[in-house]
Write a structure and sequence with these properties.
Length: 340
Amino acid sequence: MIEKLHQRLVALAQEHGIVKGRKMRVDTTVVETNIHYPTDSSLLGDGARVLTRTMKKIEKQAGKLKRKVRDRTRSVSKRVIAIATASRYKGEAGELKRKKEYRSLLRLTRQILNDSKRVIEEVERRRKPCLRTLREGLATMAGRVRQVVKQAKARIFDGVTQLPGKIVSLFEPHSEIIRKGKASKPTEFGKLVQLAEAENQIVTHYDVFDHRPSDRELLTEAVAEQSRRLGRVPQLVTADAGYYAQSHERAIGEMGVKWVAVPNRNTRSPERKKKEKNRWFKKAQAWRTGCEGRISVLKRRHGLRRCLYRGVEGMKRWVGLGVLADNLINIGKALAVART
């Protein structure tokens, strides 16, 4: 729905001559999910709390279970605090204490997981709709907590940090670990978003990627998408060095793009260096920097710094609403200038 509204708005801007599609600049950013900074201990603490709370609800709705649900959250909280305290101490003694506390925390978490398995099996045959919903939620959360146990054990005791299926939030499991080389925030947790702009700072289209691709894979499809929406191939396309790939530069040239201003930082070719010193190339790169300003405005004015909706679809709605609002403002400004 939001995507269709955005397409109609861009078409309206084109009808009024605000967007002509002769130029295009593209960049990516990260929209963070609404989660706390993830650590293995905090994720295990979250899991223990949610599993216990859900089992207590099932016990209340069911009337009685064969075995009373035991509340271990206080013990888990003590272990989480002890791990945080142990992390302040450097050296071998601090590391040994931290591993000891992690063993206790993992043991408590496994006990809670065993309880959840028993509760799921016990209420599986009961026909109450409320129990079915709670059981499904408990099973989903238990699966996520098992993954956290697996990744915590691998990192703390085996030193393995790159584990398949790694999650950084039990509540927003789609969140990805993204590093874009920022000094102020080297690691971000969310989704990669691409924005393509034309004249008058109008965002012609945006993408929220389910799984983070490399920037250098995106340029050709971004040009093709703008061409489909505006009915013409842009004459000038510019992006930062992360987008550079010789194959994509050749592909968009074959599509009809006359000027491609994407710097190649690793080139040793005198011809390439001479091309990047041309006046049109430098002018295009100067225009490209406005994309960074547009991203900054979207984050400060329209909330794209952090998504407050839940799930992948919530992320797409949040980004779409921010882009839609920003385009409305810029179209209004352009129409006001045209009338004066």
